[in-house]
Amino acid sequence: MMDMVANKVRKELGVKTPRVAIMMESTMSARRIANCIRGWAPKMGLEVVCEVSPSSMASDVTPELNAIEKSGAHIIVTGFSGPVGVATARKWGQLKIPAALVGCNPPSQRKGYWDYTNKFCNYELAWGAFGPVAISDKTIPFVKKFEQKHNDYPIWTAGTYDVIYIFKDAIERAGTLDSDAVVAELEKTDYIGAQGRMAFNPRGHKYPHESKTGPGYLTGVGNQWQDGKLVTVWPDGSPGNPAVGDKAWEKGVKYEGTQEYKLPPWMVEYWKNKK
């Protein structure tokens, strides 16, 4: 998603080396993500110019956003899990910070987020497990039924829906509840779920029993708020950046129903007037 946004900045604003601000909540997991982004950025033709770490429970991030604006960043890469995500989007839109907001913010994938942020989340982009696109034949029907039943959109925790079926199938194949027998069957999993194709790395892998990711397996999606609607904009079909991806991404991926990513209009206007 960072690469897609950076290329949009290059194309629409004529910026050769987009500047990045890292805005991660002050948790151990977020700090590890920040370390990764700090290493990736130069390889992707980006320059990190600012780093801020608000509390995951912060209700006001005005100082952090002011620092980011002063740094001249074009892109704000986020890593949130708590209420700070709502506070950031609300203040970002209210202050019209001239930088694209992209990253991880689970609350942003909720249906009520538009109202929680007083509509100031418009044009925020964040990773999600589900979106209104055909990741598999099961995705759109699941998303629609979930919304009808709960009046909400499914966030990543709704992946439990697929997990229950995977666990059920493994038990039935094993013919027992014996743990070792069920685990042996779980290791053979190759299941098409609402999130996509699910299988696991073998025991000898660097990350044993982790879900396989990338084209043909789980990719996740990037969902952006566009005028009150949460739409999927990534993967956009572009080849993955070789600096951070692998060969599986060379041909790109794009799901039916994917729409075009949009930079915030006030950001475009700001930077064009700066020339």
Explain how this protein is built:
- There is one protein chain.
- This protein has 9 helices and 9 strands.
- The radius of gyration is 20 Å and the shape is globular.
- The strands form 2 sheets. A 7-stranded mixed sheet has the order 2-1-3-4-5-8-9, sandwiched between helices. It has a two-stranded antiparallel ribbon with strand order 6-7.
- It is α/β, with parallel strands linked by helices.
Structural class: alpha/beta
Distance between the termini: 26 Å
- Tally the helices: 9
Task: Give the biggest beta sheet.
Answer: 7 strands, mixed
Order of helices and strands: HEHEHEHEHEHHHEEEEH
**Overall strand count:** 9
Helix content: 25-40%
Mean pLDDT: 95
What value does the Rg take, in angstroms? Answer: 20 Å
β-strand amount: 15-25%
Give the neighbour order of strands across the main sheet: 2-1-3-4-5-8-9
Spatial shape: globular
Low-confidence stretches: none
